[in-house]
């Protein structure tokens, strides 16, 4: 089908996030569903990975466990070299706040705050000051530098999504998790957004893990993982729309 080593070697590159023998089951007895079946995978720092698979394949569950939004039943999750699987809730919350960035299809902006205050909100909650140089670089690269004093209702959908990405990036997370970030965007805006995500890996050293159903979106990544029935069945280096489509089609052939 495609290259299947989910631990492709990136010599000399530190891991930003990793899973080892990860398992997750929902329900019990006859209704039990195994969402993850012993998944082992590494996400080297400064790389952009797309996670794909049909509905029910486990791609969202994998992302949620890696990000500390859900707890696995077995195995280990590491973020920035720290094992987080068995952390108490308070410490896990701190990891999510300080070491992980999130971008969702729903922008989750606070409607009463300006774009700038939304971007700075995670830092404010953590009692940290913004790196003004990084803030300037991010908002200019995303094209929202002239919209910082507007509230979300005064921004287009694409501008709101870019503000949400800026909010995730200014905390300098070990890894940024993006869940269908282009699902609510038109094709031109989605392409601009994905180009910036790719650039943030190459120029800012940001690590990005993106769940998507779109082969065109996956082609912006350095690699595409393909999941089926809770297992990684493909690891495509330098994905193209055709190689991703071929991998997806093989799952139903």
Automatic annotation (TrEMBL):
<keyword id="KW-0067">ATP-binding</keyword>
<dbReference type="InterPro" id="IPR017911">
    <property type="entry name" value="MacB-like_ATP-bd"/>
</dbReference>
<dbReference type="InterPro" id="IPR015854">
    <property type="entry name" value="ABC_transpr_LolD-like"/>
</dbReference>
<dbReference type="GO" id="GO:0005524">
    <property type="term" value="F:ATP binding"/>
</dbReference>
<dbReference type="InterPro" id="IPR003439">
    <property type="entry name" value="ABC_transporter-like_ATP-bd"/>
</dbReference>
<dbReference type="GO" id="GO:0022857">
    <property type="term" value="F:transmembrane transporter activity"/>
</dbReference>
<dbReference type="GO" id="GO:0005886">
    <property type="term" value="C:plasma membrane"/>
</dbReference>
<keyword id="KW-0813">Transport</keyword>
<protein>
    <submittedName>
        <fullName>Peptide ABC transporter ATP-binding protein</fullName>
    </submittedName>
</protein>
<dbReference type="InterPro" id="IPR017871">
    <property type="entry name" value="ABC_transporter-like_CS"/>
</dbReference>
<dbReference type="Pfam" id="PF00005">
    <property type="entry name" value="ABC_tran"/>
</dbReference>
<dbReference type="InterPro" id="IPR027417">
    <property type="entry name" value="P-loop_NTPase"/>
</dbReference>
<keyword id="KW-0547">Nucleotide-binding</keyword>
<dbReference type="GO" id="GO:0016887">
    <property type="term" value="F:ATP hydrolysis activity"/>
</dbReference>
<dbReference type="InterPro" id="IPR003593">
    <property type="entry name" value="AAA+_ATPase"/>
</dbReference>
<dbReference type="GO" id="GO:0098796">
    <property type="term" value="C:membrane protein complex"/>
</dbReference>
<feature type="domain" description="ABC transporter">
    <location>
        <begin position="17"/>
        <end position="252"/>
    </location>
</feature>
């Amino acid at each position: 089908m495609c290259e299947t080593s989910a631990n492709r070697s990136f010599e000399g590159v530190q891991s930003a996030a990793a899973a080892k023998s990860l398992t997750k089951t929902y329900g019990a007895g006859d209704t039990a569903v195994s969402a993850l079946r012993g998944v082992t995978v590494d996400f080297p720092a400064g790389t952009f990975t797309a996670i794909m698979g049909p509905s029910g394949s486990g791609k969202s569950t994998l992302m949620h466990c890696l990000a500390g939004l859900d707890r696995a039943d077995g195995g280990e999750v590491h973020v920035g070299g720290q094992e987080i699987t068995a952390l108490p809730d308070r410490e896990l919350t701190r990891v999510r706040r300080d070491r992980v960035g999130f971008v969702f299809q729903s922008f989750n902006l606070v409607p009463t705050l300006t774009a700038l205050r939304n971007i700075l909100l995670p830092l404010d909650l953590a009692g940290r000051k913004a790196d003004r140089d990084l803030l300037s670089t991010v908002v200019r690269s995303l094209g929202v530098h002239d919209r910082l004093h507007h509230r979300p209702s005064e921004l287009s959908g694409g501008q709101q999504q870019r503000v949400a990405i800026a909010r995730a990036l200014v905390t300098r997370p070990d890894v940024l998790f993006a869940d269908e970030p282009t699902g609510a965007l038109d094709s031109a805006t989605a392409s601009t957004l994905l180009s910036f995500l790719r650039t943030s890996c190459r120029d800012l050293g940001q690590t990005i893990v993106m769940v998507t159903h779109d082969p065109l979106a996956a082609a912006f990544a350095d690699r595409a993982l393909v999941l089926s029935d809770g297992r990684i069945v493909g690891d495509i280096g330098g994905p193209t729309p055709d190689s991703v489509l071929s991998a997806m089609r093989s799952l139903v052939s």
